[in-house]
Design brief:
The structure holds two protein chains of two kinds. Chain A is an alpha+beta fold. Helices cover about 40% and strands about 25% of the residues of chain A. The model of chain A has no long low-confidence stretch (mean pLDDT about 90). In chain B, helix 2 runs parallel beside helix 3. The longest helix of chain B has 15 residues. Chain B is globular. Classes of the chains: A alpha+beta, B alpha/beta.
């Protein structure tokens, strides 16, 4: 039997599903790559243009610099944690990051991520996450989203506990 | 079991809704006034997963109340409810938009 509470109950169910997803998988992000050559996905030459938290069908862009966007994108591609050294090697070995933004032939679209700088980038990404969480009304701890997992030595592994979608914008050549 | 904090000054409405929520296996904690709910959240460090607020009373500054509730949750850091505001009266789209911009959801009971 339908009653006036049905829309409320439906919404409660939706929010419990949201809560459950957030607790088990983390928040959801949209990563926008632009300057794609038509038909390619995550191919060298694209730019990591924008990263946004998605909540209630709204986007809350993370205020990140180019190097921080590259690091976020790199971590979003893996469900395993990476040490600072592994991140440096991984980014250096990837043609996607080496040719970052090359489809528009601008030399300043690339960044070298050094092992020593990763700790700082992680801290700043967490600051940007905190701002987006506050703006969106999500009560989440940035250090539980971009986690630093200890190892048996003094090394730390970084991992992103979140779900991500990649959106591609085509390269428009004039 | 999920805990729902229900803030509703309409006794009959609150009772009926709480019964529906309990029938779905949810633990419901009722408050008549938002101020009381806020003080419980802050001082007694109670946990809740969802906060349902009846915003039907047009005389109340609901946007400010929702903002205060969220700020209290952010600063207390032990409780992080998602907020659903519900209304038995039709509200203008601008109100819904403002509520959703606060990160809360809105539902109209037909």
């Amino acid at each position: 039997m339908k009653d006036s509470f049905d829309p409320v109950i439906d919404k409660v169910d939706l929010m419990l599903a949201e809560l459950c997803g957030m607790r088990s998988l983390g928040p959801h992000f949209k990563i926008v790559h632009r300057f794609r050559e038509p038909g390619c996905l995550c191919a060298p030459g694209e730019e990591v243009f924008m990263i946004a938290l998605v909540h209630h069908a709204r986007e809350f862009p993370l205020r990140l610099s180019l190097a921080q966007r590259i690091l976020f994108d790199y971590l979003a591609h893996s469900r395993f944690s990476h040490s600072a050294g592994q991140i440096e090697i991984g980014i250096r070995a990837s043609t996607f990051y080496q040719k970052h933004g090359a489809n528009v032939t601008r030399p300043d679209m690339n960044r070298t991520i050094s092992r020593s700088g990763i700790k700082t980038y992680v801290r700043r990404i967490r600051q940007a996450l905190a701002m987006a969480f506050h703006e969106s009304g999500i009560h989440a701890d940035p250090s539980k989203v971009l986690v630093a997992e200890p190892t048996v030595s003094n090394q730390v592994g970084y991992a992103l506990r979140a779900t991500c979608d990649w959106i591609h914008l085509d390269c428009v050549l004039e | 079991m999920y805990t729902v904090m229900l803030i509703d000054n309409d006794e009959m409405h609150a009772e009926a809704l709480a019964a529906r929520l309990r029938a779905r296996g949810l633990n419901v904690v009722r408050h008549r006034k938002a101020d009381h709910a806020l003080s419980v959240l802050i001082h007694k460090r109670t946990h809740c997963d969802l906060a349902l607020i009846n915003v039907s009373d047009l005389s109340q500054p609901w946007l400010r109340i929702v903002r205060k509730l969220q700020d209290a949750c952010f600063s207390s850091s032990h409780c992080c409810p998602l907020v659903l505001s519900l209304s038995t009266v039709k509200r203008e789209p601008q109100f819904e938009l403002q509520i959703e911009r606060l990160g809360a959801r809105f539902v109209y009971e037909r």
